[in-house]
Structures are given as structure tokens and as C-alpha cells.
Amino acid sequence: MGHILHDWDLARKKYLLGKAFAALPKGGAVIVYDAVIDDGRRDNAFGLLMSLNMLIETTGGFDYTGADCVAWMREAGFTATRIEHLVGPDSMVIGIK
Prior knowledge:
Elements: H1 10-23, E1 29-34, H2 45-57, H3 66-76, E2 80-85, E3 91-96
Antiparallel strand pairs: 1-3, 2-3
Helix pairs in contact: 1-3
């Protein structure tokens, strides 16, 4: 899910991750990438500004921290998760079923 989850409110984010989990076979993975905000909310200014932008452009969208996304994935049922920083402001959060 590339630059998808930040478009939606919290309930829809969780719903989409739940649907992804249900669709995957055991051992399957979901990869979410966005301008993931650092957990301390201090370093990724682009992610913070993108979150503000999503609040302006959408009904309930917002960017989120890696810890937030990991928690939502675990709530959906993913057992193994990790965060990988990519080049620039983006990171990916990987969840394994």
C-alpha cells in the first residue's frame, strides 16, 4: 500500500489492514509505505507536514508513526512486523501473517 493509508481516518486504516490480513496466505506479507513520521515526532518534517496536508485535503486522513502502524498491524493479526527507512522521507512498515 503505497501512499494509501494516509488518505483515511483511523477506522478505515484498520479496516484496510484487516482486509489485507484476511486476503493473505499464511506467511504472506503486506508492505505499507508512506512518509512515516518518526516515533519521537522530531525528525521527519516532511511527514509531519504531509499529515497536516492530509488533514486539509481529506475528511479524516493523517500520517502516522511507525509504532502506530505496527500496532494497527498487530491488531489486525500480523505477528512479525518491522520498519525499514527508505531513501528520502518515506519508510515502509512490513507485516507478516
